[in-house]
Design brief:
Strands 1, 2, 3, 4, 5 and 6 form a six-stranded antiparallel beta sheet that branches. The protein has two domains: 94 residues; 193 residues, Glutaredoxin (3-Layer(aba) Sandwich). A hairpin with a 2-residue loop joins strand 10 and strand 11. The chain is α+β, with helices and mostly antiparallel strands and 331 residues long.
Amino acid sequence: MRPRVLALAFGLGLALWSLPQGPAPAQPPVKKAAPKKSAAAPARPAGEKSGLNKQHLEGYLRHMYLWAPQVKVEVGDFTPSPVAGLLQITVRASFGPNTEQMTFYVSADGKHILAGNLHQAAEHPFRGDISKITTSLQPSFGTPGASVVLVNFSDFQCPHCRDEAKVLRENILKAYPTQVRVYFKDFPLSNHDWARAAAIAGRCIFRQDPLAFWTFHDWAFDKQAEINAANFREKLTGILKDKEIDPLQLNRCIDKRETEAEVDKQIVEGRSLRVNSTPTVFINGRRVGNVPWPTLQQYIDREIEYQKTAKNAGEQECCEVRLPGLPAGNR
């Protein structure tokens, strides 16, 4: 499903707003007469100007995005940004389990706020998001060291995720036998009653046999309409009989929720990348929506072409973690 978590009304690109100025300073005394106390300007906290006052900034953002009083807003600390003259601050807005995290840039004098993304001209334009995505020891298929890494944040109970999974599984290896590596990330939505249990089970299976995970992945999406919270464990039994899976170990892992922390880690990672719906796909850090295969293929083709000369993304600096044993062709 693709619910809008918070009505944040972000646009593409950068937007610049002028913050309201603080109260006007008191007028100087006329003819040396002592000024009236009532005419003095209200005192501000020491060292703070209007735009650098967290309380003022929260109120300004609440008004700008029409956040209801029930939305909890946490304003971080002002820190130096990569751009001279701008300070950086992180704002986290949440309503129940739904969370959105944003970064703003504020001028040093506190008069202006910039909402958007900063890019290093010498780097890949999405280097910031690439650095937040962890792929080590994650479910994947495709060629290690591929020039394009596709990361899919997904939910086993989401119908749109089922469609996206089918597109990726049926097309990627055929169209890109060596150029693309696909990673699966768990992002179970809070309004789905068996998605989290499926994510935990999937990672328990992955622990024992990474290839068996994809058997589970395909089964869960294929049988999505037949699965519910009450029958998930019953239906799971038997689908992995021909795989090297120890059923006792698997059941213990699921019962004790041994992989729940891994699932939660993926959710935190997704939120840091502004994921608020599923599926959300990243192609070498570029966030794309739930698009049809021809459009997705165009994105991949352009990134492959770009990487022929840029060589600044993909799996250029990582490889598979392998245990000593048989060569890859015999596994």
